[in-house]
Amino acid sequence: MSDTPRTANIYLGSPFYSDDERKRVDIAKDYLAQNPTVERVFFPFDQNFTDPNETAEEAKGKRSMLWREATYQNDVNNIVTATVGVFLYDMDMIDDGSAFEIGFMRALHKPVVLVPFTKHPEKEKQMNLMLANGVTTLIDGTTNFEALKTFDFNDVPANPVTGYVIL
Fold it and tell me: Which Pfam families match (predicted)?
């Protein structure tokens, strides 16, 4: 892969609510930085928009329309310019935002690499049909996360989801 040019423009999607999820993102960014096919990684929370008129007191869990619109447009624009999506998917706590982003990327005919994680590998693995058949390839995050270092993101072959009960 040493002759392979760095051309992959990655949209890195992940929930970012728990310490485990934030730690996974840092590890994934490190692995992708080592990958010889990756030119750029966009992670939405690295470019978080701040509405100067919104204060924590006003928000009370609700975000301003300006913040919502700017954040949505920033993420969608980066999905459009990405060449491939990499999604760190928490199978124990499904994230609607990641599901939307995956669907949007596939609607644009862009490959999606799903990297699922679970804290309960002993349980029977289950996945929704739309997610299982919607992604291009799967890299098991629980057992093979380091594959992000060497995966050829310039040529993303189909690797259908297997080993899951499809719901």
Answer: Nuc_deoxyrib_tr
Q: Which two tokens stand for residue 87?
A: 């999604």
The pTM of this model reads 0.91
Tell me the C-alpha distance between 140 and 127, whole Å.
13
Residues 6+ apart with CB under 8 A from 103: 130, 134
Phi, psi (deg, nearest 5) at residue 11: -100, 110
Largest CA distance in the chain: 54
Q: Which distant-in-sequence residues (6+ apart) come within 8 Å of 154 by Cβ?
A: 4, 5, 7, 8, 37
d(CA 57, CA 106): 38
User: What pLDDT was estimated at residue 65?
Assistant: 85
Query: Please, what is the average pLDDT of the chain?
Result: 91
Task: Calculate ∠ Cα 154-107-98, nearest 5°.
Answer: 80
The torsion angles phi and psi of 137, rounded to 5 degrees, stand at: -150, 160
Reported as a single tens digit per residue, the pLDDT across 91-121 is 998 899 999 999 999 999 999 999 999 999 8
Q: What letter represents residue 132's amino acid? A: A
